[in-house]
Design brief:
The structure holds 3 protein chains of 3 kinds. By secondary structure, chain A is mainly alpha-helical. In chain A, 67% of the residues lie in helices and 0% in strands. Chain B is 0% helix and 0% strand. The chains are: A mainly alpha, B little secondary structure, C alpha+beta.
Chain lengths: 513, 47, 148
């Protein structure tokens, strides 16, 4: 609003001027000669006089670039290649101008550079969100996608001036991509996934930034991606657009599993918290990650003694603050008190209602169930360190009281969510995998009701019958269940409840044997 | 049963990192060298 | 076992936006610098044409097995890409050297008649990208300041 009179015309003139200078053979290496001359023109036109004017200049330029693209895209009879050449002719020049202004503003003052970058990215985001809202189904991702990716690549060129501010550049882009997450701009979702999975973006954020300082930002962007997919995957509502986004997500996760498994290990909890419970294969993909330094023993090894594995007592890194997820504080206080002294005695009888007090309207507070399960387990493990975790040491304990209470008192949905939370900890050899594997088998053995045993079996089986990959902890737990006579697994009637189920069990058992 | 993840166009047995040749979440194959922008010496920009 | 949940109004809005965006998806070229000389022009080819990239496509060893004409084609037509960089490396391994003023690749045809600190002089083969062919040049002075 309130653009000064004449600013629009001035901006249009300057943008046109710059595009011509950028493409002229005299532009010099990286357009630097042209840039020096053009900055003089910006001074002459008074554009650089105040922050406000610079901001308006960038917004107007962005809108002009976007309008040019919409016009090119609406021209009939043009090939995609022609349309793109026309759009990129101006967009790439505009990107170069921004990159040069960021690089050369404030001389050696890096704060000035980063402030300008954040301002420009914020302006882009504002123009995109408004355009997205106004045009709805006619919204085109092309101009914004091009500007963001080419600006990111330009600002990640191997130049000393840029290396010095690279982490701030990365965080600025992560910030704007979070603002533009698919839940906020679903019409930009495909381009957004292209942007956050671009090889330069992944390389910089996950590989080249020292001390994994970029991992938390990337984890947030992946959570943003899972959140847009969740409701549609939850209903298995796989329209073609959702299917494409889902398959694209699987590709990105495969790259991460192959190149950065430790990243998936560290953030598995946050990801499983937002991935719908019925999204079995995608979740298995994340749970199958294990540190590259680790050699997984073949889960089918005869008489594999898990307790003797070197890493089995090491706690995995969980980069989510579980404690903060257990709300309200009064519930957390009672929980700690019960774990410590099995009081207040009402804790168990009120437990189910605490897990159902869910603001979002769905019947159970899934994040609370997930946090409770992991918290209780991590509280139990240190107490077992001396005796060692095993079927005979994990109970009796206040921790297993809680798990048994949930297994017995919850309804089918609640029980399924509870057992899913446990199964989500069955990963590579570590103390959590070991404890929760024992807990699950203990609940199976103690169950006084076949429906609990059937549901435990179902939670394991549904993860085994999908295409690979399968987490190591899942395999060893199921193998133990079907091999160890103490569980009398094959005596249960649900194993033979239908011919195809019986056949399925035999197939899985055969592959295990 | 999910998808056979080996059919998504990624060479999951590659000893090299996949991300440096990753073309797109929507592409059925990895990048070719001519698809990858590279900081070549300025003298090579002959056109 | 949980059954479907009712989509919220927001989620319906998101879904319809996704469906609209599905009809103008990003192109691979949207994330690449403009290729003035070999733009991506997707065109349907018979299914039996090889399409996936073959392994080790981005190694100098593979480029060393290409003919020099192929390397020159890659160098001049795939400017600014990893392919150009690999082609240049392969050419250098075959004793070609890039003249940054003429922007052409030269190879000694025989030992130079004269070598000083600043230049060498003798008979060379060079690849003329305008006439697209290899030529011999006698008595050529290759000034080292133009050696890449």
């Amino acid at each position: 609003f309130d653009d000064p009179a004449g600013l629009h015309e001035k901006t249009e003139f300057l943008l046109r001027e710059w595009v011509n200078m950028y493409h002229s053979p005299q532009a010099g290496r990286d357009s630097f000669k042209a840039f020096n001359a053009f900055v003089q023109q910006m001074h002459t036109q008074g554009i650089l006089k105040t922050d406000d004017l610079i901001t308006r200049f960038f917004r107007l330029c962005t809108e002009m670039c976007v309008d040019l693209c919409y016009r090119a895209l609406s021209e009939a009879g043009q090939s995609q290649t022609m349309i793109r050449a026309k759009c990129f002719h101006t967009l790439d020049a505009f990107v170069r101008l921004i990159a040069l202004l960021v690089k050369h503003s404030g001389d050696t003052n890096t704060v000035t550079k980063i402030n300008l970058l954040n301002k420009v990215l914020g302006i882009m985001a504002g123009v995109l969100l408004q355009d997205h809202e106004v045009r709805f189904a006619e919204f085109q991702q092309l101009p914004y996608h091009r500007i963001f990716i080419m600006l990111f690549i330009e600002l990640n060129a191997p130049e000393p001036i840029l290396e010095a501010i690279n982490f701030e550049v990365l965080t600025a882009f992560c910030h704007v991509f979070h603002i533009l997450r698919p839940a906020k701009a679903p019409g930009f979702a495909y381009a957004w996934l292209e942007l956050i999975s671009h090889r330069v973006f992944i390389g910089r954020l996950l590989a080249l930034t020292p001390n994994q300082r970029g991992w938390g930002f990337y984890a947030q962007l992946l959570v943003d991606l899972f959140k847009i997919l969740a409701p549609f995957l939850r209903n298995a509502d796989m329209t073609k657009p959702v299917q494409l986004l889902y398959k694209g997500t699987l590709r990105v996760l495969l790259v991460l599993l192959h190149d950065f498994p430790e990243f998936l290990c560290d953030y598995h909890y946050a990801f499983c918290d937002v991935i719908p419970p019925n999204c079995i294969q995608m979740r298995n993909l994340i749970l199958s990650a294990f540190p590259r330094t680790m050699r997984l023993p073949d889960p089918f090894t005869v008489n594999l003694v898990v307790e003797h594995l070197p890493d089995i007592n090491k706690a995995p890194r969980i980069l989510t603050n579980i404690v903060s997820l257990i709300q309200p504080a009064s519930f957390k206080k009672d929980l700690d008190s019960y774990l410590k002294s099995r009081a207040p005695i009402t804790f168990l009888s009120e437990l189910k209602s605490n897990l159902q007090a869910n603001p979002q309207g769905s019947r159970y507070d899934i994040p609370l169930i997930n946090a409770l399960v992991l918290y209780v387990g991590t509280q139990a493990i240190p107490l077992l360190q001396t005796k060692g975790v095993s079927m005979s040491t994990i109970a009796p304990s206040s921790h297993m009281d809680i798990f048994e209470n949930l297994a017995v008192n919850l309804d089918t949905e609640g029980r399924y969510l509870f057992l899913t939370a446990i199964a989500n900890q069955l990963r590579y050899p570590n103390s959590h995998t070991h404890y929760f594997s024992c807990a699950l088998l203990y609940l199976f053995r103690q169950a006084n009701d076949q429906t609990i045993q059937e549901l435990i079996t179902r939670v394991l089986l549904e993860r085994l019958i999908v295409n690979r990959p399968h987490p190591w902890g899942l395999l060893i737990t199921f193998i133990e269940l079907i091999k160890n006579q103490n569980f009398k697994f094959w005596d249960h009637e649900f194993v033979r409840c239908a011919p195809e189920i019986e056949k399925l069990f035999e197939n899985v058992a055969r592959s295990c044997y | 049963p999910g998808i056979d993840l080996t059919t998504l166009g990624l060479n999951l047995n590659s000893p090299e990192n996949l991300y440096s040749m990753f073309q797109s979440p929507f592409a059925e194959s990895a990048c070719r060298p001519q698809d990858i922008d590279y900081h070549v010496p300025a003298e090579y920009l002959t056109n | 076992p949980l059954g479907p949940i009712q989509l919220t109004k927001d989620q319906h809005y998101q879904l319809s936006n996704l469906e609209a965006a599905y009809h103008h998806l990003p192109h691979p070229s949207d994330s690449e610098r403009m290729r003035h000389f070999l733009p991506r022009n997707p065109c349907p080819t018979p299914t039996y044409y090889p399409s996936a990239t073959f392994p080790h496509a981005d190694t100098v060893e593979l480029y060393q097995r290409c003919s020099t004409e192929t390397l020159f084609f890659i160098f001049y037509y795939m400017e600014g890409t990893k392919a150009q960089y690999l082609a240049a490396k392969a050419l250098k391994k075959q004793s070609w050297r890039f003249h940054t003023k003429y922007m052409m690749w030269f190879q000694r045809h025989e030992e130079p008649k004269q070598i000083t600190e600043e230049y060498e002089q003798g008979t060379y083969i060079y690849f003329d990208y305008e006439k697209w062919g290899q030529k011999k040049k006698e008595g050529f002075t290759f000034e080292y300041r133009y050696l890449e």
